[in-house]
């Protein structure tokens, strides 16, 4: 107790942001392609955070930057990380041109701190700073997001994780947090259309689309925890190759071990978080993605004619007279687009992107890779997986 009080006092005096990972009672959460929000101790032992909400430029993947609305200049906003029992003091400054509020999704707190504009508080008007203060009574994976003009503000990126560690938490070796989201960006433009309700064309992990998504790098034998959050419009069945995991918690609390079942896919509905765990005992490069067929894919047209099985030889020359350079596609599927390297409109990602060690992956959107390796010295990108001899499917000569 004395040691903790002394640590608090020292950190308060010197203004150190956070604490070294080895001195924490938990494994720090990693938000791939994101960050963790810095904090300082106040004199009364409160953890103090500062959030600004405003407009920013955000890279979905190399070659595509959008006009987003962000927390602290990024979407999702930096992950807030605390311990059950902490007193939180959060200052929110509004740098938008309209009012806003911040809701602490799933958190039990005084009604006046719940962050619903007009209902539980006045709107945070442009240029104003509001203070939220509450003690964290729970542990688990929660979210923070706008609750003022949320169709626009959330639709343009105002969301983030609030993660509360249990006092006696069972540590994971790798603890990841991934936000699911979907967007509609008209090809050739930069501003997402928040009025779209269903026909989205960009799907993201932590507001990044493959091949711009960071891989999840772990060592063989690591206990891996993945926290998944969703405040978008659609449900997402998130599937992991090569493993079965157990869903150990929801935003409502821990799931008793007797109720945990092995699975390879977890569905995360809007407004939910799900936390899954497994032991990484199978080395390799394992796909991790949404299993809705259009979601591991980037911008595509949904009003294109279905020409599967249609021979276009008789019309291609006629069409080329009207559209120079026209190439008939789709008769035998869309895989050919992987190899063509066609340039689309400015600031628009190809429908499928990314390169694996054996060729184009034919994926985009909500897709990344769990990289499991033996004997890693660190968690930097380890490069392609060195498959043991005889363990890669390949062509055979059936005549022999």
In short, what is this structure?
The chain is mainly β and 400 residues long.
Notes on the protein architecture:
Mean pLDDT is 88; it is low at 1-19. This protein has a domain at 17-290: Sandwich (Immunoglobulin-like). The protein is globular, with a radius of gyration of 23 Å. Strands 10, 11, 13, 15, 16, 17 and 19 form a 7-stranded mixed β-sheet that branches. The protein has 4 helices and 23 strands. The termini are far apart. A hairpin with a 2-residue loop joins strand 21 and strand 22. 36% of the residues are buried. The protein has helices at residues 2-14, 150-153, 313-322, 337-340; strands spanning 40-41, 47-61, 64-71, 77-83, 87-94, 102-105, 129-135, 140-146, 159-165, 174-183, 202-205, 216-219, 223-230, 236-240, 245-250, 253-254, 262-263, 265-268, 272-279, 284-290, 353-356, 359-363, 367-373. It is mostly beta strands and 400 residues long. Helices cover 8% and strands 35% of the residues.
